[in-house]
Amino acid sequence: MTERVHDIAVTVNGEEVRETVDARKTLVDFLRDDLALTGSHVGCEHGVCGACTVRVDGVIVRGCLMLAVQCDGARVDTIEGVSDSGEIADLQQAFEQRNALQCGYCTPGMLLTAQELLKGGGVPSREVIRTHLSGNYCRCTGYQAIVDAVESVARARAGHG
Amino acid sequence: MKPAPFAYARARSVAQAIELLAHEEARLLAGGQSLIATLNMRLSAPRLLIDLNGIGGLDGIARNDGWLEIGALVRHAQAERSAEIARHAPLIAAALPHIGHPAIRNRGTIGGSIAFADPAAELPACLLALGGELVIAGPQGSRNVKADDFFKGLFETALTPHDVLTAIRVPAADAGTRSGFAEFARRHGDYAIAGLAAAARADGKGLRDVRLAFFGVGATPLRARQAETALGGGDVAAAVKALEQDLNPPDDVQATGAVKKHLAGVLLQRVSRQLLEARS
Description:
A: alpha+beta, DNA polymerase, domain 1, 5 strands, elongated, B: Uridine Diphospho-n-acetylenolpyruvylglucosamine Reductase, domain 2, Uridine Diphospho-n-acetylenolpyruvylglucosamine Reductase, domain 3, Enolase-like, domain 1, 11 helices
């Protein structure tokens, strides 16, 4: 019970996965290295940049600040899952249309973080959008286009596009 | 970087967590939002991580005998949504949005923030300003420690390596309670360059029982006692001047001590206005 290696069962993007993991393996490394889900990116590895953002049991977390072993029994959604399901198709389209990405490294984390805000409903102010995205670094865009994209989706979803 | 190898155990009860702490170089894992970062950077390399997240009953928020008790495993996001905290601990409610970012607040816990005692963190200062208490379970049973006696030094608290912090308690706010909060950070959600959590009682048009807890300006959250006295006397300018004696911030990577001291004065002016406003 105080072992370095553990068996875990995790529901990843709706599919149950059983794996044996080192206790020290972070969730994002598990997703990338063991499951080949490389859409979640590894940036700073200490919780600052937000590139590794994934959802665990419905809420966004830092994939580098959670251990895979802690996800035993949990439901994990990655950018691959929410892309395939179509849940954020409008947001992805808005990012593309408004040039809200250049290199794309931050984009999966940015999309999942924005989606959590948008799921709250309504049309958040630009300041609220910026504050909500404050934990996700983008080194290309200067953020303006990202805020534009999130704001436009919020308006469209609220029915006054 | 990646963490050095360690063993992992999921505690099912506080008693079991305390038993596991008998292992050499064991560390408790709550939200992990600071601990796992230090593991990744190999600033910390415990042999055993004891995961507290499976323990039931530590995530309650309840009012009891004039106190609001917040379980150690209450996550920041849960606390942000809590009507009890908004009503009975408005200082904590004001501080919560400044803690990290949404993804961090979804995991990070109230108990973890306080037990870790980062000198630039918001919640330790709030607990100190409110004159709160900590509920600590150890091999000899449970004890309460006052916030004034808890923060001992840089990342050093009254917790021994055999203890588990199970809850914090703060006096429940009522109509006479005043509180104020402000901080300066480079980016919203980053650790503060300097911050101030404050509590007081309304006394006519003035204030009494003023408690000013600055953070990011020393090894622990710090009370500014001469400024408290001056503000209780209604003199904001004298309170700001008193910070010269109360605070002696060291330089750090974010700012020099002189800048921090200046910012402390600006914070005190802003927070004084909040304290003097009647609650709506």
